Amino acid sequence: MELSTFAALLLATVAVITLFRHLTRRKLNLPPGPKPWPIIGNLNLLAGPLPHRNMHALVQKYGPIMQLQFGSFPVVVGSSVEMAEAILKTNDVKLADRPRIAAGKYTTYNYSNITWSQYGPYWRQARKICLMEIFSPKRLDQFETVRVQELHALLRKLFLSAGKPIDARDNFSDLSLSVISRLVLGKNYTVKSGSQKEFMSPKEFKEMIDELFLLNGVLDIGDSIPWLAFLDLQGYIKRMKAVGQLFDGFLEHTLNEHQKRRRGVKDYVPQDMMDILLQLSDDPNLEVQLDRTAVKAFTMVRTTLIAGGTESSSVTTEWAMAELLKKPEYFERATEELDRVIGRERWVEEKDIANLPFINAICKETMRLHPVSPFLVPRLAREDIQLGGYDIPKGTREIFGLSTPKQIPLVAEIEPRLPAHMYSM
């Protein structure tokens, strides 16, 4: 009798506490959005080969900020200039965390690179290293020779192919891949190096990079419905583990080569980004020491840039050419600007870009009309915030995606001095 009375009192206490919390809970003003289904939420609305098109249709209905439910997790989607500023600038630190998804766990050493690491000392140090060491103006100037050499190699190839059909995207892709692989790893892994036996062939290297980049952008069911993750319904986790192991072997090989090259050399001057990371790992003053795994994780995010930079650059360049061929008057104007500013006696150099406003506008307009990626890497709210007048609770995932080109006239805002008709390509 005493036990049953105690159980009844315990249940009554829990019920009262739950009711009190429910009654006193502040009613949140959440962004508009479609009503979610049980278990799957709104994932059904993104089904299909082009989920960003589905997302665009939802944006047209619910506005530049909306809330969806991806399985067990609320997701806020922003798709306007104002939302970009609010997510990427005003609330940058409050939204600096990343969701713990399978790609970060299995392909980036358990969330060890800057793309998927959580906000904290390690992340802050990684960001500082990127800004001050890896992508600083000094480093970019240091590696300009590599970019020029590879570009001239492509131009020679195109000259020898004059009169023959060529695949523009393949050539642009090879250019980007060779440049970035040399900058990051100090070696062009897209071509054979002669008689020396390679760890992997150029074809295997390209396939590995493509697979890594693809798997870091897939929508895995287990990321949204965690209790289904162990089933690996789409087979992505199996592929992530495989490419993660393959990439780890490749990075171990390249690390050993770099350490052998540095060994015993006094005042060694870094030749590439991996050299820079190894040099930083010897610095005892770092807030968080970089061990071998951290160096590989940092290198991996740079190497992921190989895939991202290769695909985005080649596709954007191809789109620019296609748009210009449809508008020969713009092609002629761009040619006139080159002849006037550069002349025909020398090559265009990177420092000339600032003096080519029309060509600069063509590049920006191409990226406006044909965005290289419809969504940015998702973020996670570290605390309760407000976006666009709506309440965003802690733990909500945020995605910023581009809407239609006409809704985000980025070029018109960046280059207002240029003719308005330039923005309607």
Automatic annotation (TrEMBL):
Pfam family, one: p450
Gene3D superfamilies listed in its UniProt record: Cytochrome P450
A molecular function GO annotation: heme binding
Keyword annotations: Heme, Iron, Metal-binding, Monooxygenase, Oxidoreductase
BP-aspect Gene Ontology terms: secondary metabolite biosynthetic process
Superkingdom to which the source organism belongs: Eukaryota
Family: Belongs to the cytochrome P450 family.
Name this polypeptide is given: CYTOCHROME P450 98A9
Organism: Salix purpurea
Taxonomic path: Eukaryota, Viridiplantae, Streptophyta, Embryophyta, Tracheophyta
